[in-house]
Each structure stands twice: as C-alpha cells, then as structure tokens.
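Dear colleagues,

As part of the handover before I leave the project, I'm documenting each prediction I ran so the next person doesn't have to rerun anything. This entry is a single chain, and its sequence is reproduced below.
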Amino acid sequence: MEFEIPQYNFNEKPPSSKLPLIILVARLLTIICIVVSIVLLKSNKVTLGNGAKLDYDYYNSYRYMLGVMIAGIIYNTLHIPFAMYYLIAKKHIIKHKSFHNFEFYGDKITFGIIATAAGAGLGATVDLQKVVYTENNSKIHDFLGLMYIPNAFLVGAFVTSGISSILSSLSTLHKSE
C-alpha cells in the first residue's frame, strides 16, 4: 500500500475576501465591549447614608449580566485564534463539520444570552429608576443612572456578537468550505 501525502501549492493564491477580517473584528469588538461593560459595572458603587454600599451585586439582573459577560469573553477568546488563522491563511484550520456546527450553535447561543443579559440589565435599570426611594433617593438614582452606560456597551457587544453569528452562519452554510 502506498500513501500519498497531500502537497501544498505555494503558488496558489487564496481567494480575496473581507469575511475573515470582519469575523475577527466582530469577535474583538465583542470582547472589548464586554470588558468595558464589566469595568463600568464593577466600578459603579454608591455609599448610602447608613454606610451601606450599593453595587451591582445587590441586584440579581446585574449579577446575571456579569455572568453572561464572562461567558461571552471566554467563548469569543477561544475563537480568536481560529479567526486569526482564517484571516491569514484564508481557510479554516479545522474543516470538520462538527467544528463548524459547534461554532454555528455556539455563536447563536452566545448571541442569545448576551441579548437576554442586555435586556435584563436595561429592564432592571428602567424599572428601578421608576421607584421612589424614601432614603438616599438621589444616591440610588445616581447609581442607577450610571448603570445605563454598561448596558449600552453590552448592547454594543450584542450587535457585534450578532454580526459574528451571522457570519458563522455564512461560513457554516457555504458549500465550498
């Protein structure tokens, strides 16, 4: 039995496409938006009149936001090397259908949970702003007013995650790869 080792044609030019660049940029922007959102979420603290500290950990919606953001960072960070290889070589490092399905479904799930976290955080902030607090009203409203900023960055991560989700769909469903 004789085995032939596949040879790489060094003169072959890969097809020019901006898809790999857009995928890499979308994943990087998702990570950047999430990191900024986490920094802002964790740094927003208010000391109330009785000495109690009010921060994100006091509300379940904001804790959920933080957990989802950490999961989003981990998932997107794991895919950065694959996106970089795809950008440089113009082909996927792993061509197996299972990997493409993992990326496809993983992007959809990540996109969905980032959407729910953004919705939960924004909904909690809007609802808590409507409450009239008897003590420390201005400090609590200042805290809640600043919570719109990490929510805005999380919405940005939602948009960029949606872009990478759509592009992974194109990559998975593309017949030539």
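The mean pLDDT is 87. The two ends are 30 Å apart (CA to CA).

All the best with the project,
I.
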